[in-house]
Amino acid sequence: MAAPATPSGTTGPPSPATRPPSSGTWSSLVSDSGGVQEECTVLGRPLLVVRRSTERPEAVEAGFAALVQPGEELGGPARSWLSDTPERLARLAATPSPYGDGLASARIAALTAALAGLGAEPVVPLAA
Q1: Are 44 and 10 in a shared domain?
Q2: Percent of the chain with pLDDT over 90
Q3: 57 plus 107 within the same structural domain
Q4: pLDDT at res. 8
Q5: Which residues sit opposite 48 in a β-bridge?
Q6: Are the C-beta atoms of residues 67 and 86 closer than 8 Å to each other?
Q7: Which of 18, 43, 58, 102 has a CB 3.0–4.6 Å from the CB of 98, allowing a cystine?
Q8: Element (H, E) at 90
Q9: How many domains does the structure of the chain reveal?
Q10: CB atoms within 10 A of CB 39
Q11: Beta strands in the chain (DSSP E)
Q12: Beta partners for residue 108, in sequence order
């Protein structure tokens, strides 16, 4: 269960035990985590990155994330970012992740099995 809503309508972070199975059910995300910056591109969800800089500019450049400075002035950029959520979600759904399609391990396993002679070569196609 998430924390109670504040007067602005926001909630605190859910505990790990009550977090939804996929952040893909959320319309947008706010985090300072580098891992979440990558995950938002696979989930197709917009992310406000509350940091002064990022080591993952690809998510920002592709339109999945926006870098906002921590502090009290965060509210303005957050409201602006969230004001076009339906349009942004549609655009992000059609945008490929700059970090790949998430199938690299399946491709590696298939090629390793084929090289070891452990069966037919199941090829997982590359995303367009």
Answers
A1: yes
A2: 17
A3: no
A4: 52
A5: 30, 66
A6: no
A7: 58
A8: helix 85-93
A9: 2
A10: 21
A11: 29-31, 47-50, 65-68
A12: none
Residues 72 and 122 in one domain: no
For residue 80, which phi and psi values (nearest 5 degrees)? -60, -45
98-116 per-residue burial string, b: 16 or more CB within 10 A, e: under 16: bbeeeeeeeeeebeeeeee
- Which domain, by its residues, includes 73? 1-97
Return d(Cα 42, Cα 24) in angstroms, integer. Answer: 9
Q: Are residues 25 and 66 in the same domain?
A: yes
88 and 118: one domain?
Answer: no
Sign of CA dihedral 56, 58, 64, 69: positive
> Are both 14 and 36 inside the same structural domain?
yes
Helices (H) and strands (E) in the chain, counts: 5, 3
| Full strand arrangement of the beta sheet holding 29-31 | 29-31, 47-50, 65-68
In tens, the pLDDT along 48-93 reads 999 999 999 999 999 999 998 888 777 887 787 777 778 888 899 8
CATH, residue 2:
3.40.50.2000
